[in-house]
Each structure stands twice: as structure tokens, then as C-alpha cells.
């Protein structure tokens, strides 16, 4: 048996310092195994009934006994993946490590409410047993819950018959329950509402011009000034798919807010967490120095700035350049790929065709050439003098 030692590290979320569980890097390579272990171990989705998970006694995690009780002791997460999507956002969050989703479910992070997750992609339960908490919530008979929407919201009124997207069957009518109806029934009872990914946040790929579904983002459906039962606006965490730690860090903030340990979550005008989406890809990109020196790549594989190859990084609000993708590794520009703006409200229409040089890049790259050449010359001159030992050190 291999022992794995874990510790807590301090992280700053929008000016609020919180503590998150850390783990060895090698342990983070097996997200699916870790999540299954967490789900089974916490009896979140057992093979027995859903009521069993609600009433099952769980071992108190080490250290929880010394923590003050959170303002909200228990909280459910109702996650709807029945928008127009590929389930990629759910798959993505299983790779999160800051914090890991299983650490949240197992109560391994101090000060959080006890969390129960109901996600059809990750669930062990199915059918009516899985949908029971959704029906309870729709009737206002479930305790505090966070509603997570994944996928674009279709317009169910622009067709003569059928459904664009639905989840489960209405026991009263025997007919499918459209995703729009679930949102109408659940959102008004939710403590908070989140979107996972650009499709749910802004419409994404399915909302491209000319699409037959008339789909849109959640804020376009509910209204940009919509507020939850607790007075929270919609919280958008865009990305295609969502960057796993971005979503889990935002969820962690909301859980601490529910527990009474964090102030109102800071959001920008597009309802994105400000500490995650306050800077551009370019500002955190390792290639940014090449842009300043007017050194641009002419083909893929070059370490230089790739803005002339079609990268939109200078104007896209995303932290992937700094954060990476999984465990701090990867991310489009970090591995030589262009930024195509997948976190932005205008994605994908305003960023197409993807491989063409962005219109603004012609002007900005041309304007910086003279400046860049001057800077390079001055730096080389200074470097030449600094790259030698002082004369008095010689015999």
C-alpha cells in the first residue's frame, strides 16, 4: 500500500483567502479513478435508492469536528447536461485539482457544507431514482441547492412539434420535460445558478448564425439582471470546454459564500468571476515578450508570438496562459496552438475563420515593428556589456 500525504495550501479567490486541499502531481493523473472512488466512498450515487444517500451516515472527515458549523450545513448540486452540448464540461471538471471535485464531495475541505452532486453523466443512479431530487427541487421541497446548466438553451417555441432538448419524463403527462421547462421550474428555487462552459454561458457553437434551434446562453434566457433566491446573479464560467480548475474554484467560492465565510462573489459585466477573467490570454502568455520585440512566428512550431497565425490572445479574456489546463500543464498558446476565443461571448462567429490573422493583428503587429526593432537593439547592446565580467577580475 502506498501512503499519500496531503496538505492544505492557501489560495486567493477574488481577494478572499481560502484553504484548498493539495495532492501530489502523480495522484492528479487519474481523475476518473479518483472521482469514482470519491463517489462510491461518499455514497453520493449508490446502487441503492437516492433516499439512502440522503440519510446515510458518513465518517466525519479529519479536522471537521474542530470547524465551526457552516451557515448552510447541507447543499445539493443539480447539474443539467441536457442543453445542446457534448458533455465536455462535465468530463473536464473531473480533471480539476484546485480543488478536486471528489475533495468537495468527501468533505475534505474545511468549512464547506456537506455537498451532494446530481449529474447524469457522473451518476450511479438512473431513471426515476436519479430524477427524484430534481422533482423535489421543482416543487420547492429540496433544501438549498446550486443549479448548474451545461449546454446551450434552445428556443422551444420556434417549431411546430417535438423537442430540441429534454431530460426525463413528466410523471403526470408521460411526456418528455424540455430543458427550458426544467430551468423555469428549478431556477426560481435555486440558492445560486451557474453555467459550465461557453455554450451555457453565451450560446457557443450551437448558437452560430443560422442555427435552426434559436439557442442562447442562460443569461439571454433568464435575463442578464436575473437574481437567485439568495440574491445572486447568474455566475458564468465560460470555456470550450470549461477549464476544470476555473469551474471548481468558482464553485468553491460559492460554497464558502453559502457557508457564510466569503462575501458576494465578484463578477464582471458578463457575469464572469473577475479574478479568473480579468486579464487577457496575451497578458499571461509566455510568448508575450516576443510580441513586444516584434518577433512573430511564420509557421507552427516556432516559440515566437503566433498572433499572425490567427491567435486572438491579445483581446480574449482567459487565464489559460497562466493557469495551464490540467495540473498547470497545457493550454492553447502554451503548447503552440492559437487562441480562438472560446471563452468569449462572440465565440465562434466573431473569431472565424480561425486560422486567419485577426484584423487588428495587422495594424498592431505593423505598428510595433519599429518599436520592437529599437527595443531589441537596445537590449542587445545592454546584454553585451552585462554578459562580461568586470575588468578588475582579470589578472
Present the secondary structure layout.
Layout: E1 7-13, E2 16-22, H1 31-41, H2 50-55, E3 74-80, H3 88-93, H4 101-105, E4 114-118, H5 127-138, E5 145-149, E6 166-169, E7 176-178, H6 179-187, E8 192-196, H7 198-202, H8 218-222, E9 235-237, H9 244-258, H10 274-277, H11 288-292, H12 320-323, H13 359-386
Parallel strand pairs: 3-4, 3-5, 5-8, 8-9
Antiparallel strand pairs: 1-2, 6-7
Question: How would you characterize this protein structure?
Answer:
The strands form 3 sheets. This protein has a 5-stranded parallel sheet with strand order 4-3-5-8-9, sandwiched between helices. A two-stranded antiparallel ribbon has the order 1-2. A two-stranded antiparallel sheet has the order 6-7. It has 2 domains: 7-55 and 68-277, NADH:ubiquinone oxidoreductase-like, 20kDa subunit (Rossmann fold), CATH 3.40.50; 282-384, Cytochrome-c3 hydrogenase, C-terminal domain (Cytochrome-c3 Hydrogenase, Chain A, domain 2), CATH 4.10.480.10. The chain is α/β, with parallel strands linked by helices. Strand 6 and strand 7 form a beta hairpin. The protein has helices at 31-41, 50-55, 88-93, 101-105, 127-138, 179-187, 198-202, 218-222, 244-258, 274-277, 288-292, 320-323, 359-386; strands at 7-13, 16-22, 74-80, 114-118, 145-149, 166-169, 176-178, 192-196, 235-237. Mean pLDDT is 85; it is low at 1-8, 21-34 and 36-58. Helix content is 29%, strand content 12%.
Amino acid at each position: 500500500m502506498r501512503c499519500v500525504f496531503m496538505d492544505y495550501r492557501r489560495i486567493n479567490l477574488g481577494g478572499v483567502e481560502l484553504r484548498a486541499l493539495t495532492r501530489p502531481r502523480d495522484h492528479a493523473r487519474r481523475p476518473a479513478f479518483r472521482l469514482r472512488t470519491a463517489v462510491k466512498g461518499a455514497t453520493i450515487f449508490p446502487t441503492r435508492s437516492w433516499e439512502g444517500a440522503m440519510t446515510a451516515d458518513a465518517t466525519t472527515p479529519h479536522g471537521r469536528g474542530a470547524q465551526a458549523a457552516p451557515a448552510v450545513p447541507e447543499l445539493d448540486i443539480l447539474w443539467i447536461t441536457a442543453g445542446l452540448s457534448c458533455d465536455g464540461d462535465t468530463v473536464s471538471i473531473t480533471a480539476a485539482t484546485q480543488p478536486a471535485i471528489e475533495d468537495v464531495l468527501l468533505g475534505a475541505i474545511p468549512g464547506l457544507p456537506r455537498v451532494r452532486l446530481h449529474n447524469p453523466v457522473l451518476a450511479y443512479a438512473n431513471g426515476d431514482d436519479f430524477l427524484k431530487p430534481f422533482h423535489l427541487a421543482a416543487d420547492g421541497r429540496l433544501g438549498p441547492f446550486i443549479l448548474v446548466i451545461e449546454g446551450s438553451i434552445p428556443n422551444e417555441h420556434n417549431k411546430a412539434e417535438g423537442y430540441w432538448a429534454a431530460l426525463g419524463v413528466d410523471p403526470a403527462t408521460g411526456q418528455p420535460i424540455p430543458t427550458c421547462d426544467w430551468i423555469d421550474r428549478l431556477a426560481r428555487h435555486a440558492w445560486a445558478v451557474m453555467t459550465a462552459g461557453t455554450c451555457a454561458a453565451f450560446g457557443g457553437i450551437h448558437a452560430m448564425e443560422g442555427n435552426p434551434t434559436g439557442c442562447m446562453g442562460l443569461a439571454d434566457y433568464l435575463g442578464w439582471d436575473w437574481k437567485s433566491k439568495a440574491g445572486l446573479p447568474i455566475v458564468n464560467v465560460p470555456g470550450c470546454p470549461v477549464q476544470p480548475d476555473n469551474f471548481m474554484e468558482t464553485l468553491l467560492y460559492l460554497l464558502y459564500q453559502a457557508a457564510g465565510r466569503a462575501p458576494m462573489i465578484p463578477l464582471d459585466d458578463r457575469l464572469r468571476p473577475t479574478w479568473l477573467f480579468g486579464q487577457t490570454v496575451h497578458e499571461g502568455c509566455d510568448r508575450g515578450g516576443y510580441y513586444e520585440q516584434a518577433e512573430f512566428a511564420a509557421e507552427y512550431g516556432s516559440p515566437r508570438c503566433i498572433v499572425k497565425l490567427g491567435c486572438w490572445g491579445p483581446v480574449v479574456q482567459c487565464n489559460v496562459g497562466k493557469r495551464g489546463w490540467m495540473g498547470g500543464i497545457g493550454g492553447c498558446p502554451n503548447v503552440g496552438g492559437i487562441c480562438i476565443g472560446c471563452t468569449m461571448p462572440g465565440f465562434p462567429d466573431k473569431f472565424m475563420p480561425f486560422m486567419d490573422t485577426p484584423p487588428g493583428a495587422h495594424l498592431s503587429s505593423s505598428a510595433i515593428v519599429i518599436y520592437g526593432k529599437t527595443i531589441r537593439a537596445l537590449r542587445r547592446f545592454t546584454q553585451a556589456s552585462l554578459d562580461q565580467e568586470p575588468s578588475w577580475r582579470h589578472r
